[in-house]
Design brief:
The chain is an alpha+beta fold. Helix content is 44%, strand content 21%.
Amino acid sequence: MTVIIMIAQMLLGLSILVLLHEWGHFAAARAFNIRVEKFYVFFDAWGKKLFSFKKGDTEYGIGWLPLGGYVKITGMVDESLDTAQLKSAPEPYEFRSKPAWQRLIVMLGGVTVNAILGVIIFAGILMYWGEKFIPNSELKHGIVASELAQEVGLQTGDKLVSINGEPVIKFDEIMGSKVLLGDDVSIGVDRNGESVTIVLPNDFTKRLLNAEKSSFVLPRMAFKVGEVMSGMPAAEAGLMTGDEIKAINGISIGFFDELQATLQEFKGQSIEMEVLRAGQSNMLSVAVSDAGTIGFYPELEAMETSFKKYGFFESIPAGATLAWNVVADNIKGFGKVFSGDIPVEKSLGGPIAIAKKMYGGVWDWYRFWMTTGLLSMILAFMNLLPIPALDGGHVVFLLIEMVIRRPVGEKVMLVAQYVGMILVISLMVFAFGNDIWQHLLK
């Protein structure tokens, strides 16, 4: 069932994005009376399709290969590589017969719709669900530093103060784009009353992606004993819900991370545990499993979360800001990939990665729309890259035409289309192979 939900969410999300992207091209073309021969969601590779019908001059359909979609515009050199129509004189309804500025609008129609869609989705999320976050001020005991965090200079108990000199308002800023995609990132902390600045190494993001555990830092939290599992060492030793564990073998315990670390130190052994119950101290002998557990769920101290719900007029600029941040982060991410700071195999994913890591195996509408909004902005950005066979490649040739005041030669366009398609197909093959290796074989 989990796999079905992942696939269903991915297909629904991609269908929405592809349909509206291609509709952007279609609507712009029809606005200038340009004939559109085909409008397909997903590719009808080798002529195979799931469904189709014809209305007017256009065949509408759903292909079987969910890697995108297309509109076949008469008189345009596109991914169909159909050049037969170019041998005759251009007809008034053809793409090539229209002014360059109209053709430019047609080519920008898809990314424009995706950008608008991204803003609408993010604005809708802020209106319906609002914004929820943990204020940094709630981390009264500081952070729990992972092994990687300790390697770069952070310590458990540090209290986050600033990132690049700007105050930390939300705890999740520590894993935001300013940290992950920035250069020479500095983190200011309060360490036992002393101000300390940690400068992250430039290969930090690569090291984080390669770390066994993805959590860089976590809130440090006090705890009490929650549910005690029957038949486990904690229950057999007499540990009860509400107990406060104060020490293990004389080692003071104040926070849950200290309990975890101490149990790991004594795994497979018997320990003496000091427990505070109803104001009285008790000593319990407990056997620790080979995994470093004793069998109870912690009741962690409550942390107040901040919540803000946006009105209609307030949500639009806020949604636009979120959408722009996605584009800005993608630009930074590309720079990191090209510089070698982020491995290609960690940054490029295909349908399996989208279904598994982005949409997930539980149908959560908040996550679905957040992911779809994110993908809409990524699709807009990727399609604007100046690669032949993508919208951005066509835009470059049209801009050149507008500057030199004559069309780029058809042979040049055709060769560029071939090169672009080889590049795009190679990227798809790599993404698929990387998906299979990362999520199925590794």
